[in-house]
Amino acid sequence: MKKITILFFLLISLVVTAKDYGVGKVSKEELMEKEHPLDPSADAAILYKKGNTHFKIDNDKWVIITEVEVRLKIYTKKGYKYGNVNVPYYYKRVNGESVTFEEASTYNLVNGEIEKTSLKKGDDHTDEVSSTRRIKKIILQDVKEGSVIEYKYVVKSPYIHSFPDWYFQEKTPVNYIEYTVNIPQLFTYNRILNSYYELKEETEVNRKSLYVRSAKITFQEITQTYTIENLPAFKTESYIDNPDNYRLYVKHELASARDLDEKETKYTSSWESVAKTLYDDDDFGREIKKTSYFKDDIDALIKGVDDDNEKLTIVFNYVKDRMAWNEKRGLYCVDGVKKAYDERSGSCAEINLMLTAMLRYAGLNANPVVLSTKDNGFATYASINSYDFVISAVEVNDKQILLDATESFSSPDILPVRDLNGSGWLLSDNNTWKEVKLDPVKLSREMVFVNAKVSADGTVTGKLNCKYSDYDAMMYKVYFDNIPDDKHMAKLENAMGNIEISNLEYKPDEESLVQVSYDFNSVGHAEVVGDIIYLSPLLFYTETENSFNEEKRLYSLDFVYPSQVRYNFVFTIPEGYAVESMPEPIRLSSVDGIIDFTFRLSSSGNQIQVLCISAQNYSTVGPEYYESLKEMEGLTLKKQAEKIVLKKI
Fold first, then answer.
1. What are the residue boundaries of the DUF3857 domain, all occurrences included (predicted)?
2. Which parts of 205-347 fold into alpha helices (H)?
3. What is the reported pLDDT for 13?
4. Residue where one domain finishes, among candidates 265, 295, 325
5. Based on the domain organization, do 429 and 463 belong to the same domain?
6. Cβ-based burial of 293 (10 A; exposed 0-12, middle 13-18, buried ≥19)
7. Residues 226, 124 within the same domain
């Protein structure tokens, strides 16, 4: 035991001493290392990473400089991908961000000596992602198993309102990471620290001087340094929305700034100021006020319609049918609502601000809602830059209804899944605001009705009818709408397994309802052993694997929306057979009713009835519920595995 303890501390020391090495100081010990001491399964590891963000004056204007240097160890061939380094940045033809790689090298141990392969000048290249987004890329040469790579790059940004985010945790283990922020007291930033692990923090205040326009300015600068050692690789978990929400990070949101003439500007640090900023902007507030381009069309559509719910439905469906989303996100219109309307295509802001304007024109109380999509992550502060999407909210009969016309399969209060990310903010043109909960609370339902006949050879044939409502209906349409029946059936067969489908009928009857029916022939769900038939009560709907498969849970569970599935099976057993035994009925509920499960069987004559109801009653729950949910699912799987036993008489 003593030897093991000593070995453990020796391994730890190998890791933490990495902080003593800077870029260009690769050691033979690092190159000889065959696997990571604390994570032998790792394909690569960050040995050392250091970042520094500071301010400087450039052409009489403040800019933010971020310097990053990284040393990374490659253990396996799968780790070669870390030799491809990508740095995204915001591009504008004039006064945009810039990225410069100052050095990049690969180190290998050749005949006991360290061999260095440097990136040649001009080996970096730039990819254009969109009109405003680019990626600077390098591909390090001579990367092998055992290599150590190093690189250093500098990002220069003129956008003091867009402070760079810093992530400490990566998909590889991190031996040592350090990040320093130097902020002049001319600027006030709100800090967002997401920490599932303990960071070491140190703060200093220093006096600084700069010369601007031949004049000396003096100010205090706050230096904040964060360090952490032996950080495990970030590993995603089941039922997680955006992994970046849970990685260890620090972010900053600008609240106020004083320019070089000592003039102070208050930024969007409250929702009142956000509302005012947006409504005062030509590309947001003014676009909602425009009506001339659609006036005649909407007049014709709602002529003679007095019911507000009917008006809402008519206008919403009109926008969905007319407009195609061009996948562009953001709070501001790109080309304007009129051009988008004429071209029948636009950004999320253009489509949903247009929708808001039309609903107002129709006499409804409609307002825009800004939100951060799941891909964009959680938004913590009142800041325009934290939000990337616009939808609409309309109040009818004292009920608030959320609308997003960028998704053709959405319906009132049934938003695309990307929108379901905590809370959004409803902004009125009188600079008032209101928080809007985006996570659904109503159960979406799947109802399955099966009438089946069991043959003596174990074949099960029958008819299946299924109804989907609300989010379940929308998701079914997203996956299966507008595809030929043969591909539709092939997808269902692939999902079910050991089943042949024919005579498919697909009826998306209403906006929030879908009906599907088909005949099926199932093999393998009734096993014949001598004079006994062992029948799976749920046939091809039987679940066999526990979806809660982690030993421990760190992060919240995102079920997206509450849902319930109800199975009603009626089996006709073969002539000459009788029921010998059936699973006992059971009713289960997890802690606080997060999941409910009911399983009940009965028989009469030559028929068996099976009822199974499984409900997931919340959109999201905390990790403290994980163990009870895992145990609960284990019990439901055990019950589903039990067989109906039929015996030949």
1. 67-189
2. 271-280, 285-289, 295-302, 308-322, 337-343
3. 40
4. 265
5. no
6. middle
7. yes
pLDDT, one tens digit per residue, over 98-143 is 999 999 999 999 999 999 999 887 778 898 876 677 899 999 999 9
User: CA-CA distance, 102 to 23, in Å (whole number)?
Assistant: 12
Same domain assignment for residues 546 and 488: yes
Are 423 and 543 in a shared domain?
no
Q: Do 221 and 327 reside in the same domain of the chain? A: no
HSE at residue 629, side-chain half, CA atoms within 13 A, is: 29
Six-digit token string for 610: 């099976």
Is residue 347 within 8 A of residue 340, CB to CB? The reply is: yes
- Please give the tally of structural domains in the chain: 3
CATH number at residue 45: 2.60.40.3140
Averaged pLDDT, groups of 10, the chain, 649 residues long = 34 42 81 95 96 92 95 97 92 84 94 92 80 86 96 93 90 96 92 86 92 81 96 89 88 82 70 82 92 96 95 96 93 93 96 97 96 87 80 95 96 95 90 90 96 95 96 94 93 90 90 91 92 96 92 90 98 95 96 96 96 97 94 96 95
- 425 and 462: one domain? no
Q: How far is CA 348 from CA 152, 334, 344, in A?
A: 37, 10, 13
> What is the predicted pLDDT for the residue at 136?
93
Domain identity same for 507 and 619: yes
Q: Which of 437, 469, 485 is the last residue before a domain boundary? A: 437
Model pLDDT, residue 510: 67
* Residue 540, domain extent: 444-648
pLDDT at position 572, please? 97
- Give yes or no: residues 501 and 578 share one domain: yes
In the block, tokens 């070089």 appear at 260
C-alpha 151, offset from chain centre: 30
pTM for the model stands at 0.81
Q: How far apart are CA 639 and CA 81, in angstroms?
A: 45
Starting from the edge strand earliest in sequence, which strands make up the sheet with 98-110, in order?
113-118, 98-110, 148-157, 61-74, 44-58, 174-184, 215-231, 200-212
What are the distances in angstroms from CA 198 to CA 11, 195, 228?
21, 7, 8
Domain with 324 in it: what CATH number?
3.10.620.30
DSSP-based three-state secondary structure for 354? helix
Side-chain half-sphere exposure of 224, counting CA atoms within 13 A: 12
CATH number at residue 466: 2.60.120.1130
The amino acid present at 521, given as its one-letter code, is: N
Give the type of residue at 8.
F
